[in-house]
Amino acid sequence: MAPSTWTPEELKITRTLVSWRKRFVVTTERKVDTKSETGYMVVKNYLQCLDTAFQVFQVEPASRHYRQSFTPKYQSIWAGQSRLLRVDVLEAINQQMIWMNGFWSELGPTAVKPAGLMRHAWAELGRLLKRLIVEQLAARPWSMELKAEMRCALTELDAAWAKFECAYVMQAMAIEEEARVLVAEACVCERVLSNASQRRGRRGGTAAWKKQLGELVRAINLLSATVCDERRMRDADLGLVTRALMESKSILESARLQDHRQKPTPAHALATWATDAFEAVRGYLRIAWHNLESVDGELANNPGLVANLDRFQESMSATARYLADPRLLRGLSCAAAFARAACATAPELAALAADCDADFFVALPRIVWLGFLSAPDQTSPLIEHMLPELFTEPQVRGPELQALLEAYGQTVERLATATGKGLRGQEGGDPEGHRRALDMLLQRVAVGIGQEGSSAEVEVFLRRLEGWSMRLQRQRPEVWNQLSAILHRHLLGHAGEGCSDCDRGEPRRFAL
Questions:
Q1: How does pLDDT run across 343-357, given as a tens digit for each residue?
Q2: How far apart are CA 141 and CA 134, in angstroms?
Q3: Residues in Cβ contact with 330 at an 8 Å cutoff, skipping those fewer than 6 apart
């Protein structure tokens, strides 16, 4: 047959399809890769060409009247009767699963058969394109029979795609409805807790309140796991969170009964952080209860929910960890007291903290180390929590820490003597000279290393301390970020600045 049996448009789009198909990235499981950026873009371009091929070969679209039963969200995506070839639909065929709300869900019974038909039609078109490649390489013109097969393959694929699209979206809608049920259940738990709070203090009221508090924490955990499976907590952790919330309420109630002029402690900062985050989630749920139809069933698409869950998880992780360990809390209190003293010695440091300036967070790990070096016995639990490998056994400092303590002691002695006021040889050393030496170190930490007017003694030690500072931040970054957030909140609260979300550059969000 002569090449003229195919129109120029048909030849062009078919050759383009062949070209893109040859670029498919295939995984080790012999499946088309849609995960990598390259693989995704190749498949996307192939599907766009395929959509054009349907039109060029004048393939009558399969009926898509089923879309009338879609929810408004999906009707806005799959509008009317036109074809819509999406990569995620093809991906569900390959994986035989749907990824939604933090989970892979296997294709349901109603989707298995359409998926099989779709895979068969996809493979048949692929085999036909391979035959066209062979014909092209042999310099043989494509026959009318091949053109008829091409139209038949496209028609079969379009019909199979429509059937699977229906099953895919229906299952996605069912998964989203299950997610909305989780939101509704959390809302109910919040309402029951509110009622229990009103009865708290009466006979049996406290026990009911504790039980409902635990139920709400469990419901919030399920929501977090649905947004991202990695956030799911174990039952033991849920118990710690519930107890931490109860202790937080107790701390804040005690603080209200005491002198209001008393400065807040780190425990108070933790309690405020956890309680505020918990109340923010409850506030969101109270609003969601009256607007459940506006909650997107794909929970990650609700920015207000995600923001409040993130804030709750972050605050509760810190609060449960520190309030559950008295030694760790004492170490935190010592580090916080030293940080306050550092801000008093170097007022510019306090100003940086109040402005959430990046330079404050650069200086903070050095301050934590200086706090440890100046009072190692009191602050050791905190360092052990962050860098346990520096301890040969629990509560026993290893050789690296001992060497750092010796270097610090020598530096302080030399600085105390260099001021001309130290009394060398005096029993117990020279406390006043040591204080001046520590103040000098703190000043350098506040303004940065290598500043003009600093002694070589200070610079040498602080450059050594900088390596330890980086280690503190990078060894366990999640733990360090948690500690820095607590200390920052404590300093702001101690200065009367408050510890609202604005302090962290993250406004409260109740929008769905």
A1: 888 888 888 888 888
A2: 11
A3: 378, 381
